[in-house]
Each structure stands twice: as structure tokens, then as C-alpha cells.
Specification:
Number of domains: 2
Strand content: 15-25%
Strand order of the largest sheet: 3-4-2-1-5-6-7-8
CATH topology of the largest domain: Rossmann fold
Largest sheet: 8 strands, mixed
CATH superfamily of the largest domain: Glycogen Phosphorylase B
CATH class of the largest domain: Alpha Beta
Distance between the termini: 34 Å
CATH architecture of the largest domain: 3-Layer(aba) Sandwich
Number of strands: 14
Structural class: alpha/beta
Helix content: 40-55%
Oligomer: single chain
């Protein structure tokens, strides 16, 4: 099958999130099965068109893509034109949802069978942040799709609320294969690993919880990642008087990321919202127990015995849980259960599921919607 993937984020871009990792892990395996995959991404400083692991990456936009706003605007403006140039050679178009409005309602303008992959569905939060009706764009776009792939059941349920006629395949994310080469160990420090986005990722909540916990444990808080709020975070650490107990590691990838995960005593995921939580499943595979807020999606991948969830956004409870679990006897058993649970999240198996979803979608989307389905859409509109 010839696939044109509207991927937005290039996995090589500094600060790229878990969505781009998923895109590459799945697409490289599809390429090995004979799929011909082209991914259109936004430009960024140092971008290059290339074929990597059988996947053709084409950065689109204007100039170097020096900052987030110019990358976004250039991608949105150029994408319909670039799709028009390539659609004659594509059998299936795949639209990745991305911030700040989730979807560009691709089925309206691709003129090819189109399926969406939903790893991001937070337009309502962005609407509040920017005082723009971004959630209405998200709602319209979801209702224009007939088939979507969701990375979690929680997100799948929300998509069905927006469009009850959707067919949703739930296909999660996988464990970084390199993690399985690591040896679990009971480390000293607490780790946060992810994009440095203050509100979305709950970094303000993490610092409050850490201030509440750090005097009760020996280790430090290590923060690994880059992102738009890095300077704001550094200032908040200084203002809170935590500079001696928080260490910024910068962007980690490859062996350095795996080493950080396996060396940590605990991983903390303080996010206000997630669509899956890729770093959490990687940590479990590395043998590091996870502490997180009890929110949809995260509770799916942190079952009892592999880590702990606390009441959502209760910073005192989060701090207390860190302090309670840090000296707990039997963390090695928790780590072993986490590894066993994470073994089910294999990229190979997930790629097989995605290939089946693509084949089913292509068959269904070549057939126009039934009159009944059209009338239901009209009634809701």
C-alpha cells in the first residue's frame, strides 16, 4: 500500500514528543512489510528530506522553521498543496492529530481515502489558553472522519462522544526496543522525562510536590527534556529554592535516555492530560516504578502492582506518595511486575494491528457513506 502520512512532527526535531516516535516505529515496520510510506512534517532548524529505515520524510513549510509558531503556520498553509501534488500516488492518507486544534479535517480536502491517528486531543484546553474556538475546529474535524485510530481507550471514548458514527481502532504505543537491553537497578534519584511544557505536563505541580517531599528522601529530582517552557521552569526552580535538589539534564535520547530510565528509583508523570503516556510504559519496561496522577489513559498503563496513581492534581498527595514509596521495601518486585506488564506493548505487534486497520479502512473508505449515516450527520449538524 502507498501511504501518505501527514505527520507534522519529525522524530529528529529537538524536543519532539512521543507522537513522532510512534509514527516512526510503526511506519518503519510497515515499510519492512512492503508499505511505501511518505511522511510530511514541519520544518525545523537542520531539517532534511531523507529516507530513514525505509520511511521517506519530507519536511514542508517556509524557511528553516526557527520557532513553533512559524513551523505551525507554514505547515498548515503548505499541507493542502503538498498533498495535492502527491495524492495521485497515494492509496491511503493518514492524518496525525496535532496541537493546537487536533485535526485539519483532512477527509474534506485530500480527495483520497483518509484515516486519522489520534495521539493528541486537547483542543479545549488550548482554546482556554489562547481564547480561541479551537475545540470547535477539533469537533468539526472529528465529525468529518469515518475511521480513526486512538492510542488509548480513554481517547477512543471521547472520540465516540464527538462522533458516534466513528469506527475507532484502539492501538497503543510500544516500548522502545532498546529499553529491554537495560538491567533494572534500584537507583537513588526521582526522574521526570518529557517535554518541558509547564501546564500540559504539570511541571508546576511537580515542583510543588517535590518541595513537599524532598526533605524526606535522599535522592534528587532529575528533569530530562527540552521544550518551550524551559526558562520558565528554571526560574521557578530558583524561586522555590530548589536549585540544590533539582538537576536539569537536557534532552536525552538513545542510550542516554535508556540509562536515565533504568538508573532512576521512581519515575513521576505529573501531567494534567495525556493521550497515552509513552514514557511511563518505557519506565515500566526498564524496571522503574511509576507514580502519576489518576487521569484517563495513564491509569490504563499503570495497573496495580507496577506503580501508583494519586488523586488528580493533588500536589500534597503526590509529594507524600513520592516520600512514601522512595524507601519502600520490595521495589524490586514492583519493578519486575512492571516489566512483565510492559512486555505486551510490542511495536511489532502494534504495527501488525495498524496494518490491518489500514487495509480495513481502505476497503471501507472506498465505499461512500450510506444514506442513513449521512442523514445522522445532517441531524447532528
Amino acid at each position: 500500500m502507498r501511504v501518505l502520512h501527514l505527520g507534522f512532527e519529525d522524530p529528529r526535531m529537538p524536543g519532539a514528543g512521543g507522537g513522532s516516535v510512534r509514527t516512526h516505529e510503526i511506519n518503519s515496520r510497515l515499510a519492512a512489510k512492503g508499505f511505501l510510506v511518505t511522511v510530511l512534517t514541519a520544518r525545523y532548524p537542520g531539517w532534511q528530506e531523507r529516507v530513514e529505515d525505509g520511511v521517506h520524510y519530507v519536511p514542508i513549510g517556509f524557511g528553516t522553521g526557527r520557532n513553533r509558531l512559524t513551523r505551525l503556520v507554514a505547515y498548515v498553509v503548505r499541507l493542502p498543496l503538498e498533498v495535492r501534488k502527491r495524492r495521485s500516488t497515494a492509496e491511503l492518507v493518514v492524518e496525525d492529530f496535532f496541537a493546537p486544534f487536533s485535526t485539519m479535517a483532512a477527509p474534506l480536502w485530500t480527495k483520497r481515502p483518509t484515516i486519522g491517528v489520534v495521539q493528541w486531543l486537547h483542543a479545549r484546553d488550548k482554546a482556554r489558553q489562547y481564547k480561541l474556538p479551537l475545540h470547535w475546529i477539533e469537533r468539526l474535524g472529528v465529525r468529518k472522519h469515518r475511521r480513526l485510530i486512538s492510542v488509548s481507550q480513554g481517547i477512543g471514548d471521547r472520540l465516540k462522544e464527538l462522533n458516534p458514527d466513528l469506527h475507532v481502532d484502539v492501538i497503543g504505543n510500544g516500548v522502545d526496543p532498546a529499553v529491554w537491553t537495560s538491567e533494572p537497578r534500584l537507583g537513588k534519584d526521582i526522574l521526570y522525562l518529557g517535554r518541558l511544557e509547564y501546564g500540559h505536563k504539570g511541571l508546576d505541580l511537580l515542583l510543588e510536590a517535590w518541595a513537599h517531599a524532598c526533605n524526606r528522601i535522599d535522592g534528587n529530582l532529575l528533569i530530562a527534556g527540552t521544550g518551550p517552557d524551559e526558562e520558565r521552569l528554571r526560574k521557578a526552580i530558583r524561586d522555590a529554592g530548589l536549585s540544590e535538589r533539582v538537576q536539569m539534564l537536557g534532552w536525552l535520547s538513545g542510550d542516554k535516555k535508556v540509562q536515565a530510565l533504568s538508573d532512576a528509583r521512581l519515575l513521576v508523570v505529573p501531567s494534567r492530560r495525556e493521550t497515552f503516556g509513552l514514557v511511563a510504559i518505557d519506565a515500566l519496561a526498564a524496571g522503574t516504578p511509576v507514580i502519576a496522577f489518576d487521569i484517563p489513559c495513564l491509569r490504563e498503563i499503570i495497573p496495580p502492582g507496577t506503580g501508583w496513581v494519586v488523586d488528580a492534581f493533588d500536589v500534597q498527595a503526590l509529594g507524600d506518595e513520592i516520600a512514601r514509596r522512595y524507601p519502600q521495601a520490595g521495589l524490586e518486585e514492583v519493578a519486575a511486575q512492571g516489566r512483565s506488564f510492559a512486555a505486551a506493548y510490542s511495536w511489532d505487534a502494534l504495527a501488525d494491528m495498524q496494518a490491518q486497520a489500514y487495509n480495513s479502512a481502505l476497503t471501507e473508505l472506498m465505499t461512500p457513506p450510506t444514506r442513513l449515516t449521512k442523514s445522522r450527520h445532517a441531524e447532528r449538524a
